[in-house]
Each structure stands twice: as C-alpha cells, then as structure tokens.
C-alpha cells in the first residue's frame, strides 16, 4: 500500500516524518552563467577554473544561493503556491563543483519535521546531497498549512468590486 502525500491544507501533527517531495536538480556551467546574469554574482569561483583552484577549490562551484533556491523548488511545487513558503534556511557545508563539460546532480528529499497546528505552520526538513555528500546542512523551510491563505483573509477575490 502506498501512503498518500498530504497537501499543505491537510497536514496535521500526525504527518511528522512524512516525505512530501524529492527531486534531482541538474546543474551545468550554463546554469551558473544564467544565475550570475540574473543575480549579479560574478565571483570568478563560479566561472573560472584557474581562479577557483587558486583559492583552494577543485574547480568552479555552484552559487550557494542557486543551490539553496533550486532545492526549494520541489517544496514550492508540493505546496502548490510559492507564497506558502514563509521562510527558509540552510548552512552551506560543502561546495558543489560543476564540471566544465557535463553536469552535476543535487538530490533533495523533503520530509515534514514538525507541525505547529496553532500557528498553521509546518517545518519541512531537507536532505541535500551531491555525489553522496551532504552539501547543505540544517536545511529547512517553514510552510503555511491549512485551508486558508492568511494573506487572503478578507474573503474578497481580485475580481470583486470595491
């Protein structure tokens, strides 16, 4: 029998330990260039192998925030609305080297770590690895649970007349 993954609207304290999402994020040098252009982070450790080695890295590495943002995508997809993610945090424990040719995979597994029904929040714990090594530690997102969106508590829809 396969367990049903609860939606954020249906989470209760009984769901602690339930896996809600998993994904493989594939990063390439092209991913790094695109992220650098969008973020303005042109640190040469993200595009220049020679420079990366000169500062003690094995090669070019992925931007930390690219890695963190990418691993939140499966949580956002599961939540059904990125606005349900109230906050997120992580410790960068190991760089993610990105080869000049080919790609690197980052694996993420998201599990309900705690539920606060009174606050309508669930902590989603993320296990993030690449090449079998943990690359983010204490990774978690806090997601709004329950049927209603507190930001939409007026009950009016965008199409209602004022």
From TrEMBL:
It holds the Pfam family MaoC_dehydratas. InterPro entries: Fatty_acid_synthase, HotDog_dom_sf, MaoC-like_dom. It comes from the Bacteria. SUPFAM superfamilies: Thioesterase/thiol ester dehydrase-isomerase (SSF54637). Residues 15-124 form the MaoC-like domain. One of its GO terms (biological process) is fatty acid biosynthetic process. One of its GO terms (cellular component) is fatty acid synthase complex. Gene3D superfamilies: Hotdog Thioesterase. GO terms for molecular function: fatty acid synthase activity. Belongs to the enoyl-CoA hydratase/isomerase family. This is Acyl dehydratase.
């Amino acid at each position: 029998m396969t367990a049903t993954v609860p939606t954020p609207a249906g989470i209760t304290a009984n769901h602690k330990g339930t896996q809600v999402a998993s994904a493989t994020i594939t990063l390439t040098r092209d991913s790094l260039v695109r992220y650098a252009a969008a973020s303005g982070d042109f640190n040469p450790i993200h595009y220049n192998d020679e420079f990366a080695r000169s500062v003690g890295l094995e090669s070019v590495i992925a931007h930390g925030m690219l890695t963190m943002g990418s691993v939140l995508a499966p949580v956002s997809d599961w939540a059904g609305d990125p606005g349900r993610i109230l906050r997120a945090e992580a410790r960068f424990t190991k760089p993610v080297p990105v080869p000049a040719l080919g790609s690197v995979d980052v694996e993420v597994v998201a599990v309900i770590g705690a539920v606060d029904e009174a606050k309508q929040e669930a902590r989603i714990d993320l296990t993030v690895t690449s090449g079998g090594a943990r690359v983010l530690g204490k990774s978690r997102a806090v997601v709004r649970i329950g049927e209603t969106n507190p930001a939409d508590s007026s009950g009016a829809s965008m199409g209602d007349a004022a």
